[in-house]
């Protein structure tokens, strides 16, 4: 084990910026450290980078630092706070932050109730322990260059999350805290906790610096952004030498592809090359982040990303000091070699002189686009316009081209249903509520209900849960972490008739239920039929769905470009107590060969009658 002397005279540092818990006593802290040394070996992924001929600084004891205060824009340009940022050995494009200051950033951007969320920092020499209000901790050993999470999922866990890996993000409550629209149910929900995780930064040639007597425990801003912000919050810290931006792709680019005020401010700096130190660090950090956080690593048979970058010929470009070369290589690599439809290059670095876009089309994208075009053309050529809700005899068809839940659930409490007949624009909750009213109206002829997901490319998992609960009474959505091995199942009910109760009257318990799927049914458009299949009460019609199991997360590079990728959270379904991944799609119970037959509603209704 290598050892490194502190950089400067030493003092203890205790966090005071966020809500503090009762401080751990010195004896208790020492006990915690001792216990940590005797625990079962934490789980480690295949890791490290091939240093090759790269010269790295083995002796860090003579390192020096400079600091400057920078404005942190915490979500938009109207909300900001200043923090000191540190630079080692005058490398001014590679920022570090003191752990206490970063803990305050975590507190400021916590998406949950701040009167509950808490962080407590204790230090002992070259070891720092950051503990959440729930008792779970992150231990940083500055001599060993390691970060140990006793339970990573719990440490980044949202205060208001219902279960350990809750993927239903919104808390649908009114001003009194009463559940509206969606209710989380304890019965049927459970957690299986994962293993402790150790990040060995030294294997990636990433170094930490501490001066206990100065109260300085310095970690790369990028490392903390990757593991403490991107996973739980979906946001990253982007540094452009003038300021730091807490943002994701949605905060930088509008839905129409136009730059936001935040992106314009981010780019309002001269373009230039990276320092040699940042070029190397950014590559090492990218490898560490992807090795741990890319959810399809095992499925894609990736040992390490350093090896994959070498095998695919991208390593040299990703090590370049030219940000245009780096961004171009990263964009091509994501589009062509990750090839999973969820992963995508989003925003070029502030250092670039022009945004880089991939010239390569991935095989999965080509296949998905071709399938979407086939089915879209078939729908356009149908003998009548396909509406979000329509009835053919005793069969109702409800078509979702995407899943979206705009605003809080309380929007619908007073019956303010914004139903739109266009399946490409209507919001999911409004359509379900409207369809339920029609299907259950007095003297309704409806006996069969068909949900059409044939052109559903995914969207909001909250909306997917809403649809599942409408059909099944209770939506049981399961998530497995490829990083820790943890598994969570959350169970949800909905109030479809807006009477304030979550009961059988909100479901289609007395109808024959079907779901129409095809190769374009992806992500949440694939999760829903998987959940239906496992229930045994919904008949799937059509063709194999398009797959896609991981939720999407945002990541940035150390030189501040932004991309998204498949996260460690795998959407799954439970069958006989086991969690099954949905990545490969689901086979229908009854195959429909021709896309045109998906939208011949009369013929399809006749076919459904033959199934009984």
Describe the overall structure.
The protein has 612 residues and is an alpha+beta fold. The chain is built from 15 helices and 25 strands. The chain has helices at 26-38, 99-108, 152-155, 221-233, 249-252, 261-266, 276-293, 305-311, 315-318, 323-338, 363-380, 428-439, 461-472, 524-535, 601-610; strands at residues 65-74, 80-88, 95-98, 119-124, 127-132, 137-141, 146-149, 182-192, 197-200, 209-211, 216-220, 236-239, 243-247, 344-347, 389-392, 395-399, 448-452, 475-481, 487-494, 512-517, 538-542, 550-556, 562-575, 578-581, 590-591. It starts with 25 loop residues before the first helix and ends with a helix.
Spell out the key features of this protein.
612 residues, alpha+beta, 7-stranded mixed beta sheet, 7-stranded antiparallel beta sheet, 15 helices, 25 strands
